[in-house]
Here is the input.
Amino acid sequence: MTIYDLTLAELRDLLDRRELSAVEVTTAYLERIAETNPKLNSFITVCAETAKAEAEAADRAMAAGETKPLTGLPIAAKDIFNTAGVLTTCGSRILGNYTSPYDATAIARIKAQKAVIVGKLNMDEFAMGSSNENSAFGAVRNPWELSHVPGGSSGGSAACVAASQAAAALGTDTGGSIRQPAAYCSVVGLKPTYGRVSRFGVVAYASSLDQVGPITRDVRDCALMLQAIAGYDPADSTSVDTPAPDYQTGLTRDLKGLRIGLPQEYFIDGLDDDVRRAVEQATTTCRNLGAEIIDVSLPHTTYAVACYYLIATAEASSNLARYDGVRYGLRADQAANLIDMYMQSRAAGFGPEVKRRIMLGTYALSSGYYDAYYLKAQKVRTLIRQDFLDAFEKVDVLLTPVAPTPAFALGEKVNDPLQMYLSDIYTIPVNLAGTCAMSLPCGFSADGLPIGLQLIGKPFDEAAILSTAYAFEQATTWHQRKPQL
Amino acid sequence: MNEHYETVIGLEVHVQLTTRTKIFCGCSTEFGRTPNSQTCPVCLGLPGALPVLNRKAVEFAIRTGLATNCRIAPRSIFARKNYFYPDLPKGYQISQFELPVCEHGWLDIDLEDGGVKRIGITRAHMEEDAGKLIHGETPETAGSSLVDLNRACTPLLEIVSEPDMRSADQAIAYLKKLHQIVVYLGVCDGNLEEGSFRCDANVSVRPHGQKAFGTRAELKNINSFRFIKQAIEYEVERQIDLIESGGKVIQETRLFDSNTGMTRSMRGKEEAHDYRYFPDPDLVPLVISQEWIAEVRATLPELPEAKRRRFVEGLGLSTYDAEVLAADRKLADYFDACVTLAKDAKSCANWVMGEVLRKLKETDTAITSAPVTPEMLSGLLARIADETISGKIAKTVFEQMWQNGEPADRIIEAQGLKQVTDTGEIEGLVDQVIAAHPEQVSEYLSGKDKLIGFFVGKVMQASQGKANPGMVNQLLKKKLHG
Ligand SMILES: [Zn+2]
Here is the structure.
């Protein structure tokens, strides 16, 4: 038994039976991180000291009979989450020296269960990117193929879980930033419905699209993590006051009678043959498990990427205005005056992709262009959301590829932002619609690269995609493969 | 002023709402605390922090909207106004743009010729205030600027009028009326110097008879009613002079300098910001139900105008007295409390406007902390009414009540100020006075009626002011006519 290869549920069992202590688990993971991180660069900060203290506290809590589902389990968080007393860089030079004074709600909730936070994970700067190459702290490598990207923006989170550097990770998903890297790294990633998990304390990229979610080894762990972070938070006005159901007990529903829709617009030219084959095979598996497969249409899919890049960048241009060098973060010290200080600080602090998106978004909101861009994009967004609601009149769950291709090589798309943006065409519409979706392993390409399956659910029906995913996972072995490092 | 031109004025007033906590976080709004001591991740604009709307601020906005005859929007939207400034921690201000909380209101102002004019209120929208910059005031900070974010995120209501005012006096009348209302409503402390009630004026001129408005200048940085009048009058003259000399008014923002009494250009239209307003995705639409509006309406206090009317029509006060007493809600409350206890409105008005106001001014005291409470004052008035003391003695008693905080009865009792109404005692004094002044008695009896005053004065003097003057008068006449 290798401690670091166990799932959250398996670790829970061993901890509960006193066969392992939280300190032993944490120590094993910290060693694993020390050993593998030089190859992967998935961590920006490793919290070795605090993790040990938290593990000791978890052991004391368990001894006192105060065990909660995540007590003593090693978890890492994307560096977009504010964590009190710890560096919170958001993958950016402009926050390179920024230590947060407070915990994000998602962090506070797992801390309340006495989970052990082992570190903060690498990411595309301000969650802008699909390859993790836009990090001020260097690219992350794909544990399955070190010359390839792990996906993004939660690339560090997916690579970390795939490489057993933490038992689970927290990520965020604005246009596919949990699901696409999960697919590229053969782990499970869930983007909950907008409003299901509090965004408080998550550094904002695009506020109307950002959502917090887990990345885990398997579906059961995913349900466990979602349970811990889901639920209303008065500190986030957009969080929804709907009680979260018990995701664990809902997992074991079978697929008999489940209506699964295949959106025709998702199976088109540009979809890699290996990916197509793997997803078709997954469809067959589901049919064999008793699901009814139905063709559906999401007619406005073709506008989703354009719509996303107007809304997300518009919101980002405003969200990132606070990084002005006045109160915290990088400040240019040679500035001649105030305007110069703003310009120099931001020029030095932001990377090229972030600058590109700030400019795009500023343009989309400018007077004279607002109606043609931002407002129109909002109208298209309504149509896209309606597409999904219409489809969900006929089916319970949608099944699609996560990305058109498996992971690509480092450097392959850095000079072609448009190509890079298209790697999110199957994930972006879900964020625009505000509903939930997850990615889970469904095969490998001829080159041995992981392929992900996307299940999309009705708003606030995470339980349906989790149980579908669980049934699929029980019938397949993809999730049991591990990368050789 | 050149009589060929007409002045057109529209006003934008920023009312700072007196909620205990800020509009989007739980920090205190108290004024004058240590810089940056009243801040949190939200009002500091830290990464990841999110705003949560303060319900009390919305209630205050509804109150103000209802009192200014506005329609309260069942659904309004918060928007981001984007611009960079060191006192603006998020790089945008959360405000309302396309759908404000209040619209289509009005206020009537009294004109100098006795007429009434209705001033339209276009809208009132909620927003957060910015912080404050302090520019190197000590040797260590010389040459640098410091940011204090205690004020950041305090709730404001911006009330925008129609360009309906035609003179600085009308503008002042509107402002004073609005000021009185928000203070009355308890939604604003009304302090102009501290910036709780701030006014920007849009001023333009046009030849009489011309339909189209002239190009306007926006005047900023005016923090007293006097300065507002000065700024507008200066600006009107500047614009007329400019036009008369063949120039053109340009649309710009101008800063009023209270030292010179002049306005100067701050930024022109071409330098105007593109604020890139868009709905704030961190906040959900503000939905206000009819029930909530009705609830707030039910708690609205009686407004100054209604109060004045009631004082005149219901209590029989003069228009002037009603005006003075209704001008301040606390004073009016004090007066109302007195009337409830003492019944005689006229004498309550006389005492409140006379002795009470005089002492307040003399001792620089607020009406709410006056040592003589309405209960105590009505206690004093009761002793005048039942003739225990005379009005003259009452003033002495009042003075002591103010000083010692003791009720009238105790002072009257302790110092023996009770009016003498014992017929025998007064008769004795009357007899003494008549006996001592035979000459005056014969003069009086020969027809010099006015001398009765002389005798009364003497008797009162002998009683040290305590004899009941009516009884003295009566007894004197009886004895003299024997
Ligand atoms: Zn605050």
Remarks:
- Residues 3-250+476-480 of chain A form a domain with the Amidase signature (AS) enzymes fold (CATH 3.90.1300.10).
- The two ends of chain A are 17 Å apart (CA to CA).
- Chain A has 16 helices and eleven strands.
